[in-house]
Amino acid sequence: MEETPTHSPYKVLIVDDSAIVRGLVTRMMAEDAEIDVVGSVNNGEEALAVMERGGIEVVVLDIEMPVMDGLTALPKLLEIDPTVRVIMASTLTKRNADISFQAMTLGAVDYIPKPSSSKDLNVGEGFREELLDKVKAWAEQRRKMLEVDEAAASEVAQRAEEAEPEAKPASPEPDGGASDDAASEGKAHAFRAEMSVEHQQLQKQGRIQRKRFTAELRPRPMQQQRHQPAQMRQTPQPQQPAPSAAPASQPDTSAAKTPATGAAAGRPAAPSRDPGRLIRDAAIAAGGQPKSAPKTAARPATKAPAARTAPPPKRQAAPAPQKAARAPQARSGSAPAPAKRPSARGGISLLPEKRINVEAIAIGSSTGGPQALFEVLRGLNGVRQPIFITQHMPATFTTILAEHITRLTGLKCQEAQNKMPIVGGQVYLAPGDYHMTVEGRGGGRHLMLNQNPPENFCRPSVDPMLRSLVASYGGNILTAILTGMGQDGMLGGRDVVNAGGMVVAQDEQSSVVWGMPGAAAHAGICSAVLPVGGIAAYIKKFAGGR
């Protein structure tokens, strides 16, 4: 018998022009008690109508549809709710793979390759497992990020409320208008400064999901209003209209679906942007202020509805089930997942760092990996060592991923080929459905591909890559294990450490799924567990580079 989930079901919208595909996918999801299919529609225009009603956490979005295709609908969906997680679904063609990656630069968080026929779809157990895993992982990640912002908002609100009595006694009655305004203005500046520091602390290292990886990517109008306070680059100006008021990122509130209408109409735009008001009403501060970054899931703080008159309890009103849903994420692998994210490092012991002669850099990743890879690799410009990557991904998609890595990071990335010689400073990506290994020593090293049985249910797999690197480079290897389900990379990482190399893992807060990096961290083989934004600098500390 199926266990009853300890959290409310994840709310999912399916958008596909094939009635057969919609029916089969809906049935797959309906069989899982942790998922509630809120809607199933056949084009982007209908999807927008469902989104306007609110409550959607994940959208599975087809690419090719009549009336409005997936790429056209994507920014419009994110405009309605910047925190919704959009997973692109497409058949395995080079064109669709390329569009899926374009969509990820425009705000989609992931992709899933659909079987090419309804018959394949019906019997495709692998497709079902991958679909359910990704939907749950991204929905849970969204809830956790909203929870982080809720906690931050409550803290800021409490500080603001504590500071209020000190600033008030000076001029209670005389000159009600002018002096009050002046005092309020002064407090506003102080509050801005405090908020900047607070947000810098929260955003500094963990900005990952939905982040733009090139300068020109996606400033969406709904966001621009609220984007500035959280980023700390500019001081917010009290007169912005804030069209998408806090409810837009709240999945289960009635206001969430009307970012441009309900929010703007029900409350003057100023309150969520006016620091003076935020000080007077800590609850509004908790709801409105942190909801800034659409793209980093970490920033959309959305506790608005719960806050009306008093600072909300720390854990109260984020989408109901934030905490309990950690376990399901690791269901497809045996990775140990800690019970609570904030205390992720509690049970982890780190190995001492050591100076090693780094000759090779190895990276393993899975769910959420493309975004994390872009982030890490962009910081590795100038390294002289070859970089080997295994990302769990099907054929065709790895070809496009290699092109996007080259385009977005400045590093030359190639999909590995048999007998390809290894050159320093270049990136080699394992092709879909093949394990990538290294053979030879010194100047005679080259890549080899094989279709040996999957390891950790994956091909390509990280473990065989790491074992071969140890055989070729000894302990002169620096390995990074990034976000992903399961525990691939943990055993290979142990071999790296036993040979004298080092392993760094991505931390839980910046991971979509803390399966692979969590397994490495809990195995006691890591010298560091870091936010994704700190991993490149850590690698360069030992590997050198500009």
Describe this structure in words.
The protein has 546 residues and is α/β, with parallel strands linked by helices. It is 39% helix and 13% strand. The protein has helices spanning 19-30, 44-53, 70-80, 94-105, 118-123, 125-167, 176-203, 221-231, 262-266, 275-280, 282-288, 369-378, 397-409, 462-473, 490-499, 516-522, 532-543; strands spanning 10-15, 35-41, 58-62, 85-91, 110-114, 360-365, 387-391, 413-415, 427-429, 435-439, 446-450, 477-481, 502-506, 528-530. The strands form three sheets. It has a seven-stranded parallel β-sheet with strand order 8-9-7-6-12-13-14, sandwiched between helices. It starts with 9 loop residues before the first strand and ends with a helix. It comes from Thalassospira profundimaris. Keywords: Chemotaxis, Cytoplasm, Hydrolase, Phosphoprotein. The modification 4-aspartylphosphate is found at residue 62. InterPro entries: CheB-like (IPR008248), CheB_C (IPR035909), CheY-like_superfamily (IPR011006), Sig_transdc_resp-reg_Me-estase (IPR000673), Sig_transdc_resp-reg_receiver (IPR001789).
Taking Cα atoms only, what radius of gyration do you get, to the nearest Å? 24 Å
In the CATH hierarchy, the architecture of the largest domain is 3-Layer(aba) Sandwich
CATH class of the largest domain, anyone?
A: Alpha Beta
Helical segment tally?
17
Q: Main sheet, how many strands, which sense, barrel?
A: 7 strands, parallel
Widest beta sheet: strand line-up: 8-9-7-6-12-13-14
By oligomeric state, this entry counts as single chain
CATH superfamily of the largest domain: Methylesterase CheB, C-terminal domain
**Distance between the first and last residues' Cα:** 57 Å
Relative helix content? 25-40%
Q: How many discrete structural domains?
A: 3
Query: How is the CATH topology of the largest domain named?
Result: Rossmann fold
The geometry reads as globular
Strand content range = 5-15%
Number of strands: 14
By helix and strand content, what is the structural category?
A: alpha/beta
Which whole number gives the mean pLDDT? 74
**Poorly predicted spans:** 182-345
Pfam family, one: CheB_methylest
Protein name: Protein-glutamate methylesterase/protein-glutamine glutaminase
Domain CheB-type methylesterase: 361-539
EC number: 3.1.1.61, 3.5.1.44
